[in-house]
Amino acid sequence: MSQVFSSGEPFTLESGKVLQGFHLSYTTAGRLNEAKDNVVWIFHALTANSNPIEWWPGLVGPGHFFDPERYFIVCVNMPGSCYGSISALDENAATGKPYYHTFPLFTTRDMIRAYQHLKAALGIDKIKIGIGGSMGGQQLLEWAIEEPSLFEYIIPIATNAFHSAWGIAFNTSQRLCIASDPSWKESHPAAGLEGMKLARSIALLSYRHYDTYQKAQSGVTENTAALPVDEQVFKASTYQQYQGDKLAKRFTAFSYYFLSKAMDTHNVGRNRVSAEEALQRIQAKTLVIGISTDILFPPAEQEFIARHIPGAQVAIIDSLYGHDGFLLEYDNITRLLNNFIQTQPAGITTAALINS
What we know:
The chain has about 350 residues and is of the alpha/beta class. The protein has 2 domains: about 1-165 and about 265-350, Alpha/Beta hydrolase fold, catalytic domain (Rossmann fold, 3-Layer(aba) Sandwich), CATH 3.40.50.1820; about 165-265, Orthogonal Bundle (Rna Polymerase Sigma Factor, Chain: A), CATH 1.10.1740.110. The protein is built from 12 helices and 12 strands. The chain has helices at about 50-55, 110-120, 135-145, 165-180, 195-205, 210-215, 235-250, 255-265, 275-280, 300-310, 325-330, 330-345; strands at about 1-5, 10, 20, 20-30, 40-45, 70-75, 90, 95-100, 125-135, 150-155, 285-290, 315. The longest helix has 16 residues, at about 165-180. Belongs to the AB hydrolase superfamily. MetX family. It catalyses: L-homoserine + acetyl-CoA = O-acetyl-L-homoserine + CoA. One of its GO terms (cellular component) is cytoplasm.
């Protein structure tokens, strides 16, 4: 069930800017039980919405690991996204006009601090399982550090404790594509969409892997195979164009721009002693999952997280899909979750999980 939570209280961002309130779009599935000990909080990635049954159908929904008959499932749309939470298209109370390019930066830490207000409104005191991949995993780590006793289990997937120079370079290149679109200078909802299509093309190169493209996008399209060589069109070319067009139908360049900046600022060690010290604060039983072919969030980043969270385990899944494996490897993730949740608190060995 999709709903909107609104707060009229002043909200101070990490930047020091103060909002006179905010709103969050969120989806729930299932019911909070009497003991209030069946909460699962799912964190979505960059361009997803607050309904994980849509984008994680192999993990969330009736008959799957996160079954609404068993759990009370909560997922919030990130501030800055275009799926219902406060964003650049909303009205700035100070001007009476949409924010557009002046939308303030929500860091991943700001995001979870906003979620704390929703948690209180829902009457949630404890979260049994927190799980999220990529930018969702970044938020999960921030919250598990901010409130060490809140989560019983956390499963950060294909994520990191601080965004790498490599990841920032990819995001910066994508924002340069958006900024190069002449329409980006204009103040209307469709500004920068052509540039965002190019940005998405760059992003896909970091989300997938060499072998992913070799297997699925090799050769020329069937309808041009019989044409002279200078008229043939490659599958990889049409795929890149298709993915850009597809995103432009459901997302805005403003959300893409500001959320990618939020990802760049992610650093659990900011204004704390260090990332290592911050991770050591986490008290939840932790399973960190990585993807062997992930070039954007390589396994070394998940191993770093697990090394510094007390008692954490790490699992690296062999996958053809690169970073997007966290969205597609349902069976492997389900098996790891079953093993991890059922064997705690005794725990399982790292060796039993790696290359599962």
